[in-house]
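re: ur question from the group chat, yeah i did fold both. here u go
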Amino acid sequence: MCRLGASTMAEFTGGDDYQAEFDPKAYLGYFKFGEDTLGEEYLNFSLKHYCKTFTSGVVKGDTLIDIGSGPTIHQLLSACESFKKIIASDYTYRNHQELEKWLKNEPGAFDWTPVVKYVCELEGNRGKEAEKMAKLRKTIKRVLKCDVHQSNPMEPIVLPPADCLVSSLCLESACKDLTTYRNALKNISSLLKPGGHLVLSGVLGCSFYMVGPKRFSCLVLGEEFLREVLSDTGFIIQEFEVLIRDDNINDSSDFSGKFFILARKEEAI
């Protein structure tokens, strides 16, 4: 999760709402693999694409920045094999604390073992869960404050341009309208080297999601807009995968589909 703009509509949940009411432990309930959760459907889709992307040998380098990590690490499990250094980031301090708890292997940290086991199987490394978790913990060097509405989202820290950006389920939660989304994409793009890769995943047609009893707003996105805004921001789309949701009957979220995008930032002229 990244910082959300100031609320101008009653239904929009902004940054203050996230700081006050976003419960990382309740959110992580979506990621209990093998328990038929709504998040498991998203995990199955996204983890396969992360594995394909980061084991291809094409998307690699020294530094990867994860924009709006939330309290999750699933999006980085394959990436840690292809990058020497990962920087995680989020707007809310409670998400920082939850990430740090897992990184330090502290009691009460979320158990990612079933997800890690699945990723190891996808990568052909069955039984290597402990090694995978140790490698990711070693590769994540920092957890920083992130605000996608700032021209430098890591303000006041200035980072060298990264080889890759990952962002999962962040911008559609952080932006109240399509113009704000367009600006946020431009802001995070400034953190990426020309020729670097953007790995963007999220949900289509979603207007809300629940975290415990709290309803959070979500910006309704469509494939046509995503293709247009990426092109306008200087990205060349290399892969755009969509999976339509089978069953829309759920009180937790109203998304209609999931997307996974691999794009490359155009070289400077």
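okk and heres the other one u asked abt
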Amino acid sequence: MSSRIELLNAGLLRSDGRRPYELRTIAINFGAQGTADGSVTYSHGLTQVRVSVLGPHEAKPGTRRETFHDRATLNVEVQLAPFGVGERRRRGRGDKRLLELAASIKSTFEPVVQTHLYPRSTIDIFIHVLQLDGGLLPACINASTLALATAGIPLFDFVCAISGGVHGTQPLLDLTTVEENDVPSVVVGVMPRTGRVTLVQMETRLHMDRFEEVFRVACDAGKVLWSEMRDALRERTGDLVDKLEAGPGMVVAKETDET
């Protein structure tokens, strides 16, 4: 079902004012979430997800049969906040769409996480979708990369994902919900340092010639995302190092002065 909104005008501006290859604003917050070993709140435009990583830890008694003797098992769970999704129907953990989303994220990270370092253990990735306006799978993947890194889980490389599509003959990057509903689209996940591709997911038909062009610009966009994510992670690491060097007494004194 097509939208009544003009996706691309004569000046090559999209409905939200962006150029065809322009990405939405990214915001990354590394605030702690409960007992999680690593957590991040990741906003990409109006899409916002919160990811918490626990582990590696010993498998629960009821799930030990699912573990492997030579590597860790990745467990991915996705939940949608009812207040942040434009749907009346409530989606539970057994929802088919959420299970497919979790399976895509798991298969994306299995060749990236160095699971061989943690045999017979489990790494949990819990994803909570707070707001949704397109690009859900890329946001979940990018946030999971950052959360795994903050949890100290060794990775072979970052995974940076972005969505792309074609409106007429014009490729578009970083689709909103309206654009995803109207144009054939694809999600590409790349490992920017090695240049490997760990995910290509397409649920609609796309001509081979158009696919090659979208795939190429999506890989280039992955490098841009890598720069943003790497800088945010470096800044957080630098803050932690400064606090450790200052010592607990200095941190308490600083907080007292601020109050």
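fwiw on the second one: The beta strands are 26-29, 38-44, 47-58, 73-80, 121-131, 160-167, 170-173, 185-191, 196-201. The mean pLDDT is 88. idk if thats what u expected
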